[in-house]
User: What shape does this take?
Amino acid sequence: MKKTLLITWWTWYIWSHAVVAFEEAWYKTVIVDNLVNSSINTLIWIEKILGYKPDFFEVDLRNNEKLDEVFKKYNFDWVIHFAWLKAVWESCNYPLKYHDNNLVWSIRLFELMEKYGVKNIIFSSSATVYKPSPLTPLPDGEGNIIKLWYTETDLTWDCSNPYWTTKFVLEQILRDLAIHSWFNVMNLRYFNPIWAHETWFLWEDPNGIPNNLLPYIMKVATWDLPYLNIFWNDYKTIDWTWVRDYIDVNDLVEGHLFAYSKLDERQKIKVESNEQNHPTPLYKEGINLKWAFETYNLWTGKWVSVLEMVKTTEKVIWKEIPYKIVWRREWDLAEVYCNPNKAYKELWFKTKVSLEESLSNSWKFYSSKN
Ligand code: UDP
Assistant: This one.
């Protein structure tokens, strides 16, 4: 029998990819979304790819009654929680709106998981919870800059805006639920996903002027925007522009599938050893927290500067991307990349899609729309 999975929020391009990937991997997906930040049309595109519509409910997670009905109707094996507001600038202007949306509605969801005994959750966290690397570069004694990358055990916190804070707090809440309740949590931290689905039906195409780098570059390439603003270049990276780790969305979604396999495998071991449904909190039974809350970075482990992104795009699509160096974004971090080894060793997760392929696929979509 197919395992049933609840997906909270789905119309942003990563999550619609996830719906397709999970359905294709023989899971039944049930989607809830309040459509505040998204369009029902994504369902039509998903239907075009799959040949059928997955079950969808227009529900605000804060509306317990409606969400309760969904939980009652299905016997969920696991939940994958993507639902939140995510614009950093907006969170700085409306911090309480972000805490109310992202924290309160997650707590309502976790309450229902407890009520219906749904133990497994994949939480979509972010590298933004890591304590930022110092803005002053650290010399290695030979005049070079030591590359700072985040591993799962690094310090978190120091969030510089309310959106990031909500991710940090939710990680802590889930950690508590893993220790003091019986949640099994896969906490996946990632950053800078790029590209579109190979069918081109699902893509990263925000309304209006994009905030993120790749859609902005693509809109410059299609002459919808005159030039790219490169935010600041005073940091001692390879070319003075800022550095990120860009992961293809297809790799990212595959990482979720691997994470679920691991969760499922752990669950089976628990069933065999008769630990499942134990009424007392895990910690009292001496069960290692490692069993119940695990964090993985899902990144490529390759860092790319903004200028390298521009140059690589130019090479792949054979077009010039005009740019100007401008002001620095208030909350921006100079270097964000991580160590992907734990996911590789424990989940067998390794990214397959190169930056060039991602950019080329992205361009296929954007150029076809013009
Ligand atoms: N960036 C830029 N111009 C833009 C958008 C982004 O120079 O119009 C830079 C930004 O400073 C960061 C990188 O591109 O170093 C990735 O930014 P994005 O907003 O895509 O993701 P972030 O890492 O900020 O979440």
Observations:
- Residues 249-272 form the longest helix (24 residues).
- The chain is about 40% helix and 15% strand.
- The domain at 4-368 is CATH 3.40.50.720 (Rossmann fold).
